[in-house]
Design brief:
It is an enzyme of class 4 (lyase). This protein is of the alpha/beta class. The protein has 10 helices and 14 strands. Strand 12 and strand 13 form a beta hairpin.
Length: 336
């Protein structure tokens, strides 16, 4: 949705693929319709389709004849990829191939530029710190393994057919629009509910997982910049700063005036409010991953130098924006 906004502001006509769903799934782009009430399209046009359906991809690409394609489509939840491993491989891995093949089938190899949403999860069990474009990959989930295939098939199309195709190796990027079952949003939503008296306590998995967290709004600009270069190249996009899940929890609570103190060890650890003595955070093993990624830290020197890109939103600003947005959301609709 941030990318669509960004491109529309630049004067692009944006075509998007939407999966058929029995309930509305366009909440994050509703405001981009010409008439949001009636869902009347302006410069954003939507097509029903799916990354598991080659025929529809060929049809849409042939009809639209785009100048740029951004493949952000994926089953993108790492923990869920352990339960939906085959589907994740089909969408995230083979889906990317279907899109590339569709470009070829439509004869657009020489006219289209292709962006692939690669991921810091490729680094998984990290082989060096920090991670940059030349760091060896070691994925630790079906999601990471599927994205690894996608990464290399993009490189192959670039080298075999001279397609302008790039991989953006983006580290974690968050926002108030993040899905509710991702850890950052789960924290900001829960903290907002606790602030409004709608919730007492919530459970998390590994509190000591460390991530390089940026804002999605900053990162979509980097995607666009990668397609404006003379030569197609892969880029790491990151802040270079590392924070733990624990720290994200503490900062979120601090923003609503609560100090969290930790007690106990491992699965018995709890986060207690210093001011009231109430337990607000517990640990539940069901949120742990079978193979964990302990530490991610990106080095985006190449992007700073070649794309003149740098992150604008700080970690503290990100946390505050997410908590504020969720307080507003829950105040208006306690069931949101």
């Amino acid at each position: 949705s941030y990318l669509a906004e960004f491109l529309l502001e630049k004067g692009y006509e944006v075509h998007g693929i939407v999966r058929r769903s029995s309930s509305f799934n366009t909440g994050r782009i509703e405001h981009l319709y010409k008439n949001p009430q009636a869902h009347i399209e302006g410069n954003m046009k939507l097509h029903y389709g799916d990354l598991t359906d080659s025929t529809c991809l060929v049809k849409i690409i042939n009809e639209v004849k785009p100048s740029e394609i951004y493949n952000l489509g994926a089953q993108s939840h790492v923990k869920i990829s352990f339960d939906l491993a085959e589907y994740t491989a089909d969408v995230d891995g083979v889906g990317t191939l279907r899109l590339l093949d569709a470009i070829k089938t439509c004869g657009l190899i020489n006219s289209v530029k292709f962006y692939q949403a690669s991921t810091s999860e490729l680094f998984g069990k990290v082989q060096e710190i920090p991670q940059k474009e030349t760091t060896p990959f070691y994925p630790r989930s079906p999601y990471g393994a599927a994205k690894l295939y996608a990464y290399w098939i993009v490189v192959n199309f670039r080298e075999a057919y001279n397609l302008f195709a790039v991989n953006g190796i983006l580290f974690n990027h968050e926002s108030p629009r993040r899905g509710a079952n991702f850890v950052t949003r789960k924290i900001s939503r829960s903290v907002a509910k606790i602030h409004l008296g709608q919730l007492d306590c919530f459970s998390l998995g590994n509190l000591d997982a460390k991530r390089d967290w940026g804002h999605a709004r900053d990162y979509v600009e980097a995607m666009w910049l990668m397609l404006q270069t003379d030569e197609p190249e892969d880029f790491v996009i990151a802040t270079g700063e590392v924070h733990s899940v624990r720290e994200f929890v503490e900062k979120s609570f601090k923003h609503i005036g609560k100090t969290i103190v930790w007690e106990g060890k491992n699965e018995n650890e709890v986060g207690r409010c210093k001011e009231t003595g109430k337990i607000h955070v517990t640990v539940n093993h069901k949120y742990y991953r079978p193979t964990e990624v302990d530490f991610l830290q990106g080095d985006c020197t190449k992007a700073r130098q070649k794309l003149n890109w740098k992150p604008r939103v700080t970690f503290d600003e990100l946390v505050r924006e997410m908590v504020d947005a969720d307080v507003e959301l829950m105040r208006n609709n306690p069931n949101a």
